[in-house]
Amino acid sequence: MIKSKVFFAALLLSLAALPAWAEVRVVASVKPLQLIAAAVVDGIGRAEVLIPPGASPHHYALKPSDMRKLGEADQLIWVGPQLEMFLAKTLRQQAVPALALLPMEDGGDQHEADEEQDTTGGHHHHDHERDLHLWMNPLQALRAAEQLSEALAGRFPQHRETLTKNLERFAASLLSKDRQLQQQLQPLQQRGFFVFHDAYSGFVKRYGLKQLGYFTVDPGRPTGTRRLAEIRQRLKAAEAVCVFGEPQFKAAVVRTVTEGLSVGYAELDPLASEQAVSADGYALYLQQLADRFSGCLGANLTAKP
Question: How many CB atoms within 10 Å of residue 239?
C-alpha cells in the first residue's frame, strides 16, 4: 500500500514536471507562419509545419504523416485557399481547427492585379488585391500574430496572460527590427532588380525597394519567351544591378537570361527554409532577407544604378 502511494506520488510529480509546451500544439502550413506561431506560443506550446524544406505551397500534396499531424493539432494556421490550395479540400472534409490569417486590405501594401504573358500568347490573370505572402510585410505578420493569439486565448483561457505577454514582446521586437531595416535598406532604394518568383511585394513596398519585375507568378509555370526577352533587354540596358533566384527552384532560365551580362546574382528564400524555429526566429528571418538584398544591391554602389 505504501509502495503504491509512493509510486503515484512520483507519477504526479513527473507529470507536473512535464514541459508546458505539451499543452498547446500549433501547426502552420508554411515555415514563416511557423516562426510567427513560435513567438506566440513561447513557453506554453510548440509550433510545427506541414510543408518540409525545399517544397512549395503552390504544388504540395499532403502525406499520411501530414494528416496525422493535422489530426493532433490544437490549431492550424494558413493563409487561405488562394495560396495553400492543397489544404482546401482536406479542411472541407475534416473538422480541423483552422485559422486563415487573412492579409490586411487597407495597409497600403497590396499591389494591383497584373497580367502575365504566357507562352501561348494569352494572358494569365493573377489576383494580388491581397498579398498572399503576408509574412513578407512585418505589419501583416504582426496582424497574423494578433489573430493567432486571440484564437488561442479563446480556446486556452488559462494561457491568456502568457499569450498577451508573448504578443507584446513579439510586437516590440518586430517594430524595432522594422526600424532597423528601414535604415539599412534606405540607401538601396534606387537599385533596380528582378526576382524569380512574385513573392516579395510586401517586403519590397514596405522598404521602398525598386523591383522591376519577376520571372514568374507560379514557380511551376514556364516563363513566357516574351517576358524573358524583355527582362534580358532591361538587364542589357543596366536598369537592374541584381537578379534574385530561390533555393527551392534551380531555374536554368535565370542563368540563361543573365549569361554574359554584368549583373549580380543572389538567392532569396521566401519560405525561410534554413531559419531556426524560436521566439525570435521571424525577426531573424526578416534580417536575413534584408542582408541578402543589401549584399547584392549594395555591391559597387558607385556604379550606375
Answer: 18
